[in-house]
Amino acid sequence: MKDREVILSKIREYTPEMVAVRRSFHRYPELGWCEFRTASIIAYQLRKLGYRILTGPEVTPEALRMGVPSKEELKEAYSEAIRNGAITEELLPMNGGFTGVVGILENGSGPVFGMRFDMDALPIQEADWGQEYRSVRPGIMHACGHDAHAAIGLTVAKILSECRNMWSGTVKFFFQPAEEGARGARTMAGSGLLDDVDMILGCHIFGREGRKEPHADVLPGAVGSLATTKMDVVFHGKSAHAGSFPEKGKNAILAMAAAITNLYATPRHSQGNSRVNVGTVHAGSGRNIIAEEACMELEVRGINSVVNRYMEEYARQVIEGAALMHGCTCTIETVGSCTSVESTDRLSSLVQEACTDMGLIPTSYLHEHSEGSEDFSYLMDTVKSHGGEAAFAILLNNTQGPGHSPTFDIDESAMANGAAVMLGTVLNVMGKETL
Predict the structure, then answer these.
(1) Is the dihedral of CA 203, 126, 132, 82 positive or negative?
(2) Which of 6, 47, 104, 46 has the alpha carbon at shortest distance from 432?
(3) Rounded to the nearest 5°, which phi and psi values hold at 366?
(4) The pTM of the whole model exceeds 0.85
(5) Do residues 262 and 411 share a domain?
(6) Which among 280, 310, 337 is the end of a domain?
(7) d(CA 130, CA 107)
């Protein structure tokens, strides 16, 4: 237990720095595939610690990316990152939106242990309640805790680098872009960088409210999150004068409206829960013009991949049928997806043990269903496909405001807990006291 006492001492020492890093990331949030400032700082700090750094298309292969912003948006985000203090020498491989970072530290023989931390923010205007680290970027904020996750990852990397005498093997840190919209993990999973990973662990901050054991600090292994598919749809019609010759037009707004009402009427599936939501709609150019084009962004979800696939196929039929009904055509682009998170028993047990070893309170049970969707599932599935273990730990926290809302914030004490969970689990797997 001596090594764990040293680790806990270092966590206490570095917590003020970890909080400061989180607040810096929070102040300068960046959307998916645009995390240039965040990723450059992470790469720079990991390199200083002696990690081998991989960035660019090697980490996020271009052919596998989904939902990538336009070249103009990426260029503007790149320039703004430089204005906001990005590390310019780390940026070049990331140009074009290749913002994933992998840090690798080899330390003798032993297992290969992977850890994943997401980095992206959300397109939400943050409420102003006097916080000194409030987002300075209009319409963008960290409303899901990814700023804290990234700061936790850097702290864990620093402590493992300084305490190499305590563990043996190889650690791989996956700092993932574009988790929101379920876009980034699939790309990293296809990079080949997980092919030798024996275990992979992720974590996420969530509120305590409504939990079976609200006094606990950590849920060791989430299961059953919703599989999902994200789609962008464009209806193509034909414009005409709405007063003189309405019959000569093909109204894309009518097609879109028909699709929306019927999407919400999708029959449910016997295997369990499902979701459908149309989140944005844009259409038309004037009140007296038959709309030639209409666009919408939507998602479907399912309790498992079977239900999600059913929802996706039904949605496509509804959209195509609505277009046909009004003499329009449509294009449907998949811009994000993920499977269901399923933590394995063995690694979840090691997380639970790590909590006890590090003075935290784990839930008395290993697994609980996780709300929402989480594309970390792709990294988990990749590791499990070659016989490895995977777990997704939930850091229970008294959050302010619900996730994905303008008032969201965290109790920063959860960050020290996150570092302790990660480091304690590494020691349980690779620690010399354990081995």
Answers:
(1) positive
(2) 6
(3) -75, -40
(4) yes
(5) no
(6) 337
(7) 45
In this structure, the answer to whether residues 233 and 221 fall within a common structural domain is: no
Fill in the amino acid letter for 424: G
What end-to-end distance do the CA atoms of the chain give, in Å?
Answer: 13
Is 435 contained in some domain? no
Could you tell me if 312 and 356 lie in one domain?
A: no
Find the helix or strand (DSSP H, E) in which 427 lies.
helix 413-430
pLDDT for 250-274, tens place per residue?
A: 999 999 999 999 999 999 999 999 9
Query: Which residue type occupies 372?
Result: G
Strand pairing report for 221-223 and 199-207: unpaired
Q: Tokens in use for 231?
A: 């789609």
Give 311-373 as a DSSP string: HHHHHHHHHHHHHHHTT-EEEEEEEEEE---B--HHHHHHHHHHHHHTT--B-SSSEEEPSS-
Residues 359, 307 share a domain: no
Same domain, yes or no: 154 and 178? yes
Q: Residue 432 — pLDDT band, cuts 50, 70, 90?
A: confident
pLDDT for 326 beyond 90:
yes
| Together in a domain, 92 and 221 | yes
Cα gap 343→201, rounded to integer Å: 9
Among 337, 359, 388, the domain-final residue is 337
Q: Report residue 305's pLDDT band, with 50, 70 and 90 as the boundaries.
A: very high
How far, CA to CA in Å, does 407 sit from each of 125, 127, 194, 229?
9, 5, 36, 27
CA distance readout (Å), 337 to 119, 151, 180, 393: 18, 26, 10, 21
- pLDDT at position 434, please? 63
What is the domain count for the chain?
A: 2
Residue 52, domain extent: 2-225+340-430
Altogether, the residues listed in the chain come to a count of: 435
Q: What is the pLDDT of residue 149?
A: 98
In the predicted model, what is the mean pLDDT of the chain?
96
In contact, 276 and 266? CB cutoff 8 Å: yes
